[in-house]
Structures are given as C-alpha cells and as structure tokens.
Here is the input.
Amino acid sequence: MSAIEQVSRPYAASFVQFARNRREVLCLSADLTNSVEIDEFKKAYPDRFISCGLSEQAMMGVAGGLAREGLLPYVHTFAVFVTRRPYDQVAMSIAYPNLRVHLMGFLPGLTTPGGVTHQAIDDIALMRVLPNMTVVDCGDATDVESVLDATEDVDGPVYCRILRGRVPRLFREPLELGRARVLESGDDLCLFTSSVCTGEAMPAVAALRAKGLSIGHVHVSTLKPFTDPAVLEAVGAARRGVISLENHLVTGGLGSSLAELMAEQAIGHRLVRMGLHDTYAHGGSLPYLLEYYGLSAQHVVDAVERLTGERFGIELERAAENEGQSSTEKAEAL
Amino acid sequence: MSVQATKRDVDRVAAGIRRRVLLHTIENNGGYLCQACSSAETLATLFLRVMHLGPSAGPLIPREFDGVPGPGRSAGSGGAYNGERGPDNDRFLLSCTHYSLGLYAALIEVGRLDERALDHYDRDGSTVEQIGAEHSPGIEVTTGSLAQALSIGLGIALARQERGERGRVWVYMSDGELQEGQTWEALSLGAHHGLDHLGVYLDANGSQCDGPISAVQEVEPIAERVRCFGWRVHEVDGHDSDALAAPASEPSHGKPLFVIARTCSWRGIPSLEARANKHYVRFRPGEAELALSELHLSAEGARS
Here is the structure.
C-alpha cells in the first residue's frame, strides 16, 4: 500500500492558527505544556496563556468562571486528567451551566507508554453521560487540524480527544461535527472504528474486500450526539453483523453507542464490540498494546471470520503508521 | 451597598436573618439554623457595608423553576438578585450553598426578596431550593458541591483583571471547605495570579456535618496556612460588623484578601450549643419555644 503521510504535531500549529483572529480564545495549561502541544501557543500569545499548574480541579472552575465572562477557554491536559481526576468539577462547574469550555484531552486510550495512570480508557464513557457535553474523538491529522473549527460554535462544553506527535493523515476532508466518515460501503458487514483504530483497521478492511467480502467501514469522530443518519443507514445495511473497534473500553463508548442505537431502532443484527473488555491496560508501545488487548488489524480479521463462519486466509503485516504516537520530539516519551 | 450603613443596621438585618430562619426551621420541621446563626452578621455586612452592588434585577417573588441550563438556555438567573453586572460592580458567589436559607433571609432583610419568599422554600417547582442552584435567588453559580466557588471566582476575577474592571469578586465559604483539596489549589492559584480584587469571607464556625471540625479533621491554624499561600489574611470577630468590614478597605498590595470570620453556631440562640447535630436543626417538643424566647430577647437587644 502507498505510504501514508505523517504529520508532525498537527495540534500545535492548528491551535495557533485558530486563535490568531479570535481574541477571546484562551489556553489553560496544567503543567504539561509541551506534552500537549501548546508550547507554540504560549510563545505566540503569552498574554492568553493561563498557567494553572498541577491543579486540575481548580483549573476546571477557572475555565467555568472565564466562560461565564464571555471568554472561550480551551483546557489542555492528558485525557485522564481532564476526565477522571476533576470529574465533579467538570460536571458542576462546566457541564451543568452549559458553558462554552473546550476540554482537550491528550493521550487517548492506549496511545501512551505511560501505563495505566496515563491511559484514558474510560474518558468517552465519563464525558458521554454528562448532560450538555459534546464528545469528539479524533482519528487522524486532518481530524486534529479541523476539530477546532468544527466545534467552535457548539453552544455548550465540548470534550475532544486529540492525537499528538506524528499523526497519520488518513482523510482529506475536514471533520464535520455529527458526521461520520463512510470510508467503505458494504452490505455483508460494517466495521465502525474511532481514534487510532481507524488507521489500524484500514488494511484489514482492504484485505477483506479484496477477498470479496462486502464490508463497510465507517470512522466515527462525534460520539455525542450520536445521531448521524449515515451511521444508522450503514448499520441497517450490514445484514450479517456490525463490528465496533475502539481505543477505549467497550462499555460507554462507540460500541455501547451502536448497541443503544440498534436496540432503539430495532435493528436485529449481530454486534461484536472490540476494545478493552473490563480491564485496565499497562505500559507499552501502541502496536504491542493493540496486539496484546486484541485491537489489531489481524484481530479484526479474526472477528470477521468468527462472525461470518468463513476463513479468508489473511495474514497482515504489523502496520507502522501508528508508531508516531509515542512522540519522538520529546525527551520524555510519555 | 450603602456606605452609610452602620453596625446597628447590620445588627438589625442579622437579627432578622436569625428570626426568619428560626421561624422557618420551626414551621418546616427542620432547617440549616446554626449556619444562619454563625453567618448572619457576615452576610449582612457584605450586603450593607462591603459589596458594591446595583439594585436587584431579580423579581421580588421568586421565579418558578423553568428548566436547567442547556443548549439554547443560558446559565441561571439567580445572580440577578445581586444587581446588574457592571465594570464597577462587585460579584458575590456563595460557596457553601447549604447556607441558602440564611442567604434568602438576608436578601429579604435587605429588600432584594419579598417578605414571603421563604414560603417558596423547598416547595416542588420552586427555585428557592434547600441547596440552591444558579436559578435560586442570590445564587450566581452552582456550588452545592463544596469548594468549587473559589475556583470559579478565580476565573471570573482573571477575566475582570484582564478587562481592567474595578469591581471585586467576593466568595463566601465555610471552614469545612478547607478540607477539600480544591480549596488549596485555588488559594495557590489565586496568589500566583495576583488577584487582588478577589476576596474570601470564611465562616469559621468550627462546625461541620459530622460534628466539631477539630474532631472530624482539624483545619487550624487557618490564618497561618492561608497566609503561607500568599494571601492577605485578617482574622476578626465574625459577629462584629465593624471588624468584618474593615479589611475590605485595606490596601491590597497585590494580594487576594482572606477574612476569617470567627463565629459561633449558636449565636443568639444559646440552647443550640448543646445539640450534637448542628448541621441541620430539627427541634424536639419544647425546644422551639426555648429557642424562640432566647431569640426574642436577643433580637430585642439588637434593636436597642
């Protein structure tokens, strides 16, 4: 397959560009400025950079207060520290009053060698259940570059999962809020993927289609609201079953969203949810972790074979395009 | 605010707060009475002598509940009772929202709520909730989950600092909230950003839900601890309005202000002292009459 473009630190430049003519945009940091790629912003607009230190709970309140004054705070830290640690503060100081605060969560799921403390495997579930919260999960460099524009006008808080470091460019068209990307259509099966799982699964889908299986592939970036008619259509068309693959627990994220949709729409197709199954993870490289926890492209082929009862004889090489996630630009690889 | 207000005015309002909350506690078969007893002079001083607020922009008769914030529905309107926003106007954030009953009584006493507003308290469909949210009279931000208001106040103060506004941001909180880690995050952050137009009044009544703070988890020495975090700290008699008001007009020296109001949870109603549960008062037969007689005497004293 052709080489996939790798984009270095797409968020850093995008955020600077986004903020250039938007004076009300503020950048809040909780000590991880370089690690969450807001160092360029700090250099460009030091007067709009608010250092909060390692005080995530207070930072959420500060963001709420700033938003109440008509400013547009963008809160940056690792996804675990956006969601788990200050959860009550996000719920009460930001989500309840429906304030326009953007919560930018880095190192989603298994995209860090930092181990269990740094791996946000439940963040989508936590944010999705909060009333008023919009939830977006970026899957490539284009998603990262366009998510700021796509979510700018949301009347309420937005949680964005951001990829950092070297990020593959899979898509040309910018992300549209509430719109999934239908990468392939098919009427046997449909695979729904999000985050880095989309790039991971692409070779599997290509190989399966080459073997004659009519498998669709849909990349989902907007987890909430989960109302895209294209998703419903793809689910309905997949008469032999639906597979979800997510960089997250199978509970509370993409797989759960599909299950709810299918149950409510009375679509009686099989659903196989791939992701972390009621387990925490551990430190390691992304390819290793995807393999270890059963989220690799080869595991997609296995799931398809179990679902269809057919053997396709596909042996995939380990994809290399995800390795950029463990940033080589940093002294500390976390 | 009225610059002419005196200690006597404050004492009259404070007596009214205690009287209204006691009567309501009796009628309602329970209430946050001890909090009203400890906070009465501080709330009255804030409204009469410290805060620069415009006239209330909220209706005298509290609104009925008409929905929570959401898309197309902005945050609540409880802050309207503290006047229109303006660059020179102060802001008031109640952190310990279980003090709502005392605050509602204070709003009545200073003419920002109707005499009968407490009739709406804890009634289904009313905004006059036990633990107020930002649709409740006088409640600008939703802070029933303790220790969040100071951080929100920081954000508001940062924005106002950036705009060069003269108005100040006041946060009223209780000493139990010093047990929450977020309080110390916010204290550190407020000093770091030099938010000298941010001020805290702390109701140091030494009491929390489980009992005396000294038995549950000690927070002393408050003054030394907060001073170490870079705030200007004043420790005053929380039932003396002159002492309460004085720190607000001291020069800031680039530091946020923290006033520790040393208060008593049974102030004005001495029979409350013997109660094990001071967090929520529910009278047994005979107790209410004693409390009424105590307060009557005390209230008369405040009028003289």
About this structure: The radius of gyration of chain B is 18 Å.
